[in-house]
Amino acid sequence: MKALILVGGIEALKATGVTEVVLAINYQPELGIKISCSQETEPLGTAGPLALARDKLIDDSGEPFFVLNSDVICEYPLKQMIEFHKSHGGEASIMVTKVDEPSKYGVAVLEETAGQVEKFVEKPKTLLVTKSMPTSIEKEIFPKIAAEKKLYAMLLPGFWMDIGQPRDYITGLRLYLDSLRNRSSSKLASGSNIVGNVIVDETAKISEGCLIGPDVAIGPDCIVEPGVRLSRCTVMRGVRIKKHACISHSIIGWHSSVGQWARVENMTILGEDVHVCDEIYSNGGVVLPHKEIKSNILKPEIVM
Q1: Are residues 176 and 116 in the same domain?
Q2: What residue numbers bound the domain in which 67 lies?
Q3: Which of 41, 54, 100, 159 has the most crowded Cβ, counting Cβ within 10 A?
Q4: What is the reported pLDDT for 122?
């Protein structure tokens, strides 16, 4: 079984029996699953990558394939979805969820018994569906399949979150960690210095006297020095958090560092290789990669 995916959900696909992934970027991590890259030379919308990867996705087996978005996080019930798809005999299946603001995403109108999609309620732009121009799979392809009564929808169990924006990413992290807790996952950290749900890579080093959590993710090869306070934040690979720094509601990019007694909060986003000096305060700064921050960021702004 194959899948077209932009970035996320690879582990869930592997657990479902997928043996090959078409990844639409130039990064190929070692995950025990074959990954091919399908790179767009120009933006082609959400349906364009399907056309570009046609030869990789379609073969003589007749097996269906998954299409996943990279900016969505959920529990990925892919085994249930493939069973649902094979049961109804239609052309395509989509996963749907209930949201508080349906106008932001559009609405699928379903026949309740079988889950057949009757129509979509939204305001799409009129575009021709071709390989050479941007095409929306949600606004152009799915409505056509639904009109032919060949599109079915499965209600997603568990949580779902669009994490395309930093603030939504932090919310998505909380939902993901809550899901791990509900499943009594051994992936969650424990100890006297842990508050709430926290996940720490096994290669990260956490010093004594820290207080970590709730809703914190610490990546590989990170170093957290004594007295550090972390809450509702993500710390990417190779980050060093120095003594008595305090980070909340923020994202710390790869191989960055936060100095002693620094305070980073209010959706501060540090790009790769950003170094915050000692005793600096950042109130919502968005810092591009390879920068050194020597003065306070008193209000949300972009540092280029």
Answers
A1: no
A2: 2-162
A3: 159
A4: 63
Residues 95 and 188 in one domain: no
Give CA–CA dist 172/75, Å, rounded: 11
* pLDDT 10s digits, 59-93: 777 788 888 887 888 888 999 999 999 999 899 99
Model's pTM, two decimal places? 0.75
Same domain assignment for residues 185 and 288: yes
SS3 193: coil
Q: Is the pLDDT of residue 136 over 90?
A: no
Q: Spell out a b/e string for 64-91, using b for 16 or more CB atoms within 10 Å of the CB, else e.
A: bbbbbbeebbbbbbbeebbebbeeeebe
What is d(CA 288, CA 302) in angstroms, rounded to the nearest whole number? 8
pLDDT surpasses 50 at 129: no
Residue 167's contacts (CB-CB under 8 Å, 6 or more residues apart) are: 267
Q: How many domains does the chain have?
A: 2
Tell me the two tokens of residue 228: 């550090």
Which sign, positive or negative, has the C-alpha torsion 107, 112, 114, 118?
negative
The β-bridge partners of 121 are 107
* Other CB atoms within 10 Å distance of the CB of residue 172: 21
Of 52, 76, 72, nearest in space to 4 by CA: 52
Average pLDDT value for residue range 189-217: 96
Of 138, 162, 186, the residue that ends a domain is: 162
Q: Is the dihedral of CA 8, 10, 15, 21 positive or negative?
A: positive
Residue with tokens 């690879």, as numbered in its chain: 10
Do 158 and 177 have their domain in common? no
Q: What is the pLDDT of residue 76?
A: 87
Q: What are phi and psi of 195, to 5 degrees?
A: -120, 120
Domain end among 162, 192, 223? 162
